């Protein structure tokens, strides 16, 4: 194959997207931390499918024109660090081919190298043993092979890229000791390999088709829920509840949770078996909700229409024409925070935060989510509190896109850090003084969480079994225990110090006020710190703790 034209390039993108989607759960399972989140596979799929969707529905003909639409779609849909890095890889590829209608073998090899270079530049402190290593080593070896061997077949180039990416991925545990300890390869690198493998299969005439259970929110965002003259994804599954699920599961509570993402809801429990049916735009979210409760006995996701995109695009156009948004009142500052849980959302609202984007560990907001929030604010300075390390890059990317707005992403990587920073915010103060005070507050907060493990693993010598409760202090798992309260008290013992002045204790939807009060009493007995208890109603984390 001497050239790749626009038609083949589209098919390569579609096949890469499908292959990534089909392997999404496997890639999620490679995460080092055994916490119940979506993370890498989910973030990369939501990112890549958003870009591919835009490319497939565009009128662009040549490779460069299609790559431009793809790059923009990836940029706007980027979620999590892995998603942002993926968007930057394909941004670099676009920059290398933007003026070309078709590309030859050497141009393909050069584009892959440029993708690697652009991705590295986007990361402030690149870490080897990650997706960055995989794309760099694979692209460099592929380029050298193409140039020295005089390769003219594009299939040979992509085949070499896949081969070298596999080799690089297999060596990531040698570069990151934590990967070797847990016994996994880098999840971001695995996701990128899945994309390239899918692209190669399309070039070989064997494009990957999406498995029925794969439902992307990017596809679903173009649909409507059936039931009121609408369309969506019919999502059905049967769960066998885990021991923890048996203790905490409530039909009514689970139905209420499902009602936030869909309708036509059926939820029936028979001892440890739960049958669920929901029509939703985001089937992957429904699946995550189920995954927190136990293991799947059966899972099925069906698209209820194939004609949704044109319908929704027309309606969106009519809606925007008929109801223009009212300009918000101008202010000096506009604050945006990311949080999961109605209680935590209200806490940020009480601290003068203008927009709270729903998200966190289980669902990272996209760059476009931040852009939309920023554009709704009529202010001189925008301050963003990501409250999660995996959200910082998407927030920063939004600021880069909106060059005419003064956007500042605070280094708040936990909920307690974000709250503490907001406490220090003064709407009357100068920007420099606010940034200084908030950054100082962030630096003086210890953050901890209690959640549960979803798999057996070992972390820094600590054996962890699925279903155990884990105490996370900063970025480290410091305790794993069968008893939730013992785990929380062990965490507090490591966090409290003689100079501790304030402890913020936020209990989640799976914890009780009585448990929170017991922990507050423990804090009072073991320190002189003041204790503030809040109902955050957050998922996944029974307790979120901040110590100042």
Q: Which structural class is indicated by helix and strand composition?
A: alpha/beta
The main sheet comes to: 6 strands, mixed
> Helicity range of the residues?
40-55%
Q: Tally the beta strands.
A: 16
Query: What overall form do the CA principal axes indicate?
Result: globular
User: In what order do the strands lie side by side in the largest sheet?
Assistant: 13-12-9-16-14-15
- By DSSP (H or I, 4+ residues per run), the number of helices equals 22
- Backbone CA Rg: 24 Å
Q: Mean pLDDT, rounded to whole units?
A: 87
Content of β-strand: 15-25%
Report how far apart the termini are: 62 Å
How would you sum up this structure, described in words?
- The chain is 50% helix and 18% strand.
- The protein is of the alpha/beta class and 548 residues long.
- A 6-stranded mixed β-sheet has the order 13-12-9-16-14-15, sandwiched between helices.
Secondary structure: elements and pairs:
Layout: H1 6-22, H2 24-28, H3 39-57, H4 63-77, H5 80-97, H6 105-122, H7 131-149, H8 154-175, H9 177-182, H10 187-203, H11 217-220, E1 233-241, H12 243-248, H13 251-258, E2 262-270, E3 273-280, H14 283-291, E4 294-303, H15 308-322, E5 331-339, H16 342-350, E6 355-358, H17 367-376, E7 379-385, H18 392-401, E8 406-409, H19 415-424, H20 431-443, E9 446-452, E10 457-459, E11 462-464, E12 469-473, E13 476-481, H21 484-495, E14 502-507, H22 513-526, E15 530-535, E16 543-547
Parallel strand pairs: 5-6, 5-7, 7-8, 14-15
Antiparallel strand pairs: 1-3, 1-4, 2-3, 9-12, 9-16, 10-11, 12-13, 14-16
Helix pairs in contact: 1-3, 1-4, 1-10, 3-4, 3-5, 3-10, 4-5, 5-6, 5-18, 6-7, 6-8, 7-8, 7-10, 8-10, 17-18, 19-20, 21-22
